[in-house]
Every structure is written in C-alpha cells, then in structure tokens.
Amino acid sequence: MYCLVADLTGHYQKYAPKFIVGANILSSGAWKFDMEKNIVEPYDSNNKAKGTIYKWKNHEDYPDVAIDYIILDSKVNEKKTRFAFDTGCRNNKLQRGLYVGKPEQIQKETANIVNKLSIKTAELCRNVTFKIGKDEYTLDFIIGDGNIGLLNIEFLQGHSFILNYKKQILELL
Questions:
Q1: Which domain holds residue 82?
Q2: I want to staple 150 with a disulfide (CB 3.0 to 4.6 A). Which of 14, 93, 162, 165 is the partner?
C-alpha cells in the first residue's frame, strides 16, 4: 500500500481541502484521527468502543447514491435527511427545502474535475442545526443540487474520532 501526503494549502491557499485520504486506505482497517494534533494512525479495531458511535450506511443501502460515500442519517428541522461524510469537499451542502430561513446570496469560487475555477452565485444558509443520533451540530451550508447533503471534516473539529470501514462506524472520542 502506498500513501502520499502533500500539504497543498500553501500552494493552492484556500482552495485546497484540509486533507484527503483515499477510500482504499481507509477501507483497509480502522483509523484514529486526532484533529487537534493533526495525527492519523492505524487503530486496533478489536478495541471496545468508548465514545459516541454513529453507524453509517453506504451506496449498497441507498440505490440513489452512486458513489461509495459514508452516509449518515440525520435530521434538519425535524425532517429526516442524509449526509455524505466527505473529507475532501470544501463546503458543507444542504438539500434544497430543508432550510427554514431565507438563504443569503453570496459569491464563491467553484470548480470540479469538469469545470475550471470560476466565481458563481450560491445560496448560503447560516447556523443550520442538525442532529446525528442524539447529538446536535451547527454549521453553515451552501444549498446543493443533490439528493443528499455533504458534510466535510468541519463538523468533527475539536474531536478525535475513529473511522472503521469494516464495522461501518464513526466513533467520537
């Protein structure tokens, strides 16, 4: 197995995500992420869980999701929804119709594998509270066009966590 770690934030500044770890690496075992110390290390998956456990589903459980995302069931304004946990996404995205306020119109940079970097108008939803399990989180979201939302690593800031693909759990320590 090979792993290349590159700090792109100096060269690409604000356009680069904080980190990207390939699914082929993550799926090989359990991994512990310490967000305060910036450490990622293998974790013994036989250890008994000590923290809050979130079980996830993937594309096999949801036929409308084509990519092998970690999918977390959630609630926004008491409406059931789903979020794909994607460490590589730059913005948290919320499905249309879940925000109760009036979104703010902003200009933001956007690009993907097909489209070059450009400035586009987007709808920003500030301070959206959502639940995963019994826990509440509050983040800003861009309104997305997909049938599921996206959560980047921001919702786990300040936590250490274990990602275990084989057991399909995210454990907050």
A1: 9-172
A2: 93
